[in-house]
Design goal:
Length: about 475
């Protein structure tokens, strides 16, 4: 099977990846992804306490046979680790689970600093028996939810060890609320089931203003807090103001993607005397993505990825978004491609790990440009015209041609595909096809007295066209017959 690199070989030189290579712009997630995943993540059991609060050594829960810590940085020589027995379905299952979003790693690599900071602030509130608030923000997939669950578990264990009264804890994902003010009913459930006469917010305000209010501390984690933003932001203000009431013992931690949310609502919260501490989770860089995946796989006892393949994934995802969710998805997809290769391969090819080519294909799939779908949905003749134009430009090093010249290249391509068995379309139909491509914004068709002299140039990147035809047997056969 060809890869993006091999597919574009005949068409243009392979694209080099670099730090700035960004096929998919970083964007804030607007629609919620599967919250089932988050629910599963949140259900993780408490990890055992240790002096190193959020120890760097991570092991996935599914792992049964831990092996000694081995740090492998890319650029190093491949390690002499145990070989992955790809014929063992249990090993394959373990790999997939270790890379699954719902699998909770026992510790969170590369987020020790952030977790310690949050833990220390919460600890201080505990020790002083006073309320307070934190605002945790960062791009999607930067480990906020995961880290906060770890901090919560750690705090519960720590408070027990210190002999404090067990705090109440509540994690709310705002995407599950039917309306923004439902957040107050959820918090109120920590105290009682009913609320007669007063609104849930008023009831909470009343409780936190009474001397008789519960003295135990409360940890409330409000995830996906962006969903609470109303036009006047009153819900957000009311929520944070709960921590200012005289008998409140509430540690409120809001988590959101919006980094600028803090700028937008902090001044007001400062004026209301409830400005939260802000902790920002920066997008993962390539080294961190590499390390996190290695950590998640560490306990398996065998190498899953070739070092170069993993490095490629880390670089590409870091350049695009630094989203760990994306990195894990690409890695899983690369494993599935390896699995498919093992199933389909007629040759008895020996694989012991995911290769660079598998990763290349998985990344190409994950970062597929939108234009590729448009190209793939075109009628065959128009696809052949695009294929012909890319070939023509790549051979002649030109960036434009005429309808007449392209028609000749198209005819040659057609003949090589159909081995002269079928007749190509006529000149008029050919121009109509080109016009159609121009109407779809795929090429530019100039004006001229003579149809065949009209100039044609591509308006899309030729590498996108090459990519669209990658692995397409029709065009691959044509390429081979040209060679
Ligand atoms: N440091 C890490 N170590 C291991 N796995 C990680 C790490 N960071 C993130 N992940 C994994 O990446 C996925 C996304 O992480 P998480 O849900 O914590 O991100 P998030 O910052 O809360 O994203 P969002 O803003 O979209 O809610 C999870 O499956 C998580 O297990
Ligand atoms: Mg999250």
């Amino acid at each position: 099977m060809p890869t993006l690199r091999s597919a574009s070989r005949g068409l243009q030189s392979p694209k080099k990846i670099s730090e700035s290579d960004s096929t998919t712009p970083t964007k804030k997630r607007s629609s919620p992804r599967s919250k089932e995943t988050d629910a599963l993540v949140c259900s993780s059991p408490t990890s055992p306490p240790s002096d190193d609060v959020f120890g760097k050594v991570a092991k996935c829960k599914i792992i049964s046979s831990p092996r000694s810590s081995r740090k492998r940085l890319y650029g190093d020589e491949p390690t002499q680790g145990n070989k992955w027995n790809l014929k063992d379905p249990a090993q394959m299952k373990a790999v997939k689970e270790a890379l699954h979003l719902a699998t909770v790693p026992t510790s969170v690599a590369c987020r020790v600093g952030e977790q310690n900071k949050i833990f220390d602030l919460c600890k201080e509130y505990f020790e002083k028996e006073r309320a307070g608030s934190l605002y945790v923000c960062g791009c999607p997939g930067t480990g906020k939810t995961l880290s906060l669950e770890k901090v919560k578990n750690k705090l519960l264990t720590w408070s027990k060890e210190m002999g404090y009264e067990e705090p109440d804890s509540l994690s709310i994902n705002c995407t599950s609320l039917t309306n923004t003010s439902e957040i107050f009913s959820k918090i109120l459930q920590m105290f009682e089931k009913t609320c007669i006469g007063l609104t849930p917010l008023q009831r909470l305000q009343h409780i936190f203003s009474q001397k008789s209010s519960p003295r135990r501390m409360m940890l409330i984690i409000v995830d996906e807090m962006d969903y609470l933003i109303t036009r006047d932001r009153s819900v957000l203000h009311d929520l944070f103001m709960l921590t200012t009431l005289p008998f409140s013992r509430c540690i409120l931690i809001g988590i959101a993607n919006a980094i600028d949310l803090a700028d937008r609502f902090l001044p007001k919260l400062a004026s209301l005397n409830c400005k939260p501490h802000v902790i920002t989770f920066r997008a993962y860089n390539k080294d961190q993505i590499y390390e996190i995946i290695q950590e998640r796989l560490k306990g398996l006892g065998y190498d899953v990825f070739d070092a170069l393949a993993l490095e490629y994934c880390a670089r590409k995802v870091a350049a695009a978004s630094g989203d760990m969710r994306k990195a894990l998805a690409v890695c899983r997809s690369a494993v599935e491609l390896l699995e498919a290769d093992l199933r389909d391969s007629c040759e008895l090819q020996e694989f012991h790990s995911v290769t660079f080519d598998h990763m290349d294909k998985a990344l190409s799939k994950a970062f597929k440009p939108k234009i590729v779908d448009t190209i793939l949905s075109l009628p065959l003749h128009q696809q052949i015209i695009l294929y012909a134009i890319v070939n023509l430009f790549s051979q002649s090093k030109k960036s434009s041609t005429t309808v007449g010249e392209l028609n000749r290249t198209y005819n040659e391509t057609w003949r090589s595909i159909h081995r002269n068995k079928r007749t190509a379309i006529g000149a008029v139909e050919f121009t109509n096809m080109c016009q159609g491509l121009s109407d779809q914004g795929l090429l530019k068709l100039g004006q001229s007295k003579e149809e065949k002299s009209r100039r044609i140039a591509l308006t899309v990147d030729s590498s996108d066209i090459a990519y669209a035809f990658k692995g397409n047997r029709f065009f691959e056969d044509c390429k081979h017959s040209e060679e």
